[in-house]
Amino acid sequence: MRLPYLFLVGSGVTANVVPIAGSLQGTPGEDSGAIGVQLTDANGVPVTGAAVTFSVSPAGGVTFQSVPGEPACSPNNSTSSTVCATDNYGIAYVDVILGPNAGVPTVTGQAAGVAIAFDAYILAQPSINTGAVVNAASSKPTVAPGSYVSIYGLNMVEADLLSNANGDGAPWLPLPMAIDGVNVSFDVPSAGISVPGNLIFVSPGQINVQVPWELQGQSSAQVKVTMDEMYGYPVFGNVVTVPLTACAPAFYVGGGTIAAEDAITGAQILASNPAHPGEILSLYANGLGPVTNQPASGAAAVATPLSQTTVRRPW
Length: 315
Fold this sequence. Notes:
Helix content: under 10%
Largest sheet: 6 strands, mixed
Mean pLDDT: 93
Strand content: 35-45%
Oligomer: single chain
Strand order of the largest sheet: 2-10-9-4-7-6
Distance between the termini: 86 Å
CATH superfamily of the largest domain: Immunoglobulins
Radius of gyration: 28 Å
Order of helices and strands: EEEEEEEEEEEEEEEEEEEEEEEEEE
CATH class of the largest domain: Mainly Beta
Number of strands: 26
Structural class: mainly beta
């Protein structure tokens, strides 16, 4: 058996400086993991025992710590800069604890006159306000599966991902499970249910989403907002418990007027364009409960056969 091999003796002189790891994202105070910089000589042989300086701007944006099992950094727990030695693979690692405030500080690894920058994305944790998952038509806190709800809170989408400063809507049907890296989950642990909501609109302070049909028969569900999950670095929000009911009927109201239109012309009924006796109107409501020919969550109902409500009671 003949085994070819190449034997190289390193010069110990750094010729190449490249990033090996470095995806820094999370909430304030979170350990975002290690970043690394590798040093090799002109022949690609690792340079061991070489010093790499890691610094952050502005100071205090992150805290540097040694990585267990790797050469120690000095000083440890530094909020400005630290020096770490390369290991047998020529890689210097440092652990990065995100700072106390949201922002994008820059971490720089420097060796042999070469500087490599890493942006640290410190994101405020998304949070749902107390009692702020409500019927999108009535703004009441009890909602029904299959209906639309509005979620009010803070920091519920990363602002620089928005294409519109006021928020982004779903441009297609079926409704997507994520917009701008945001998704909403509905969980009933006791029933083994964990399903995503189909989104209509996202903004930092408000999300509109359909309550999944899969929650029918449940009395409550746990709801949370997650940012950036589709990009591999999820930031989880708080969990709130939302009461559910089979029906939560309400007309949509805009500007103090029930949302209605002329069923023939499609003209919206407003104070400036009132309805007339004998006119056929289309009224728009939410939370009418289960229906026949039920569509999938996020999908539009079909015209044939029509989906009709199955609950009959005087509202």
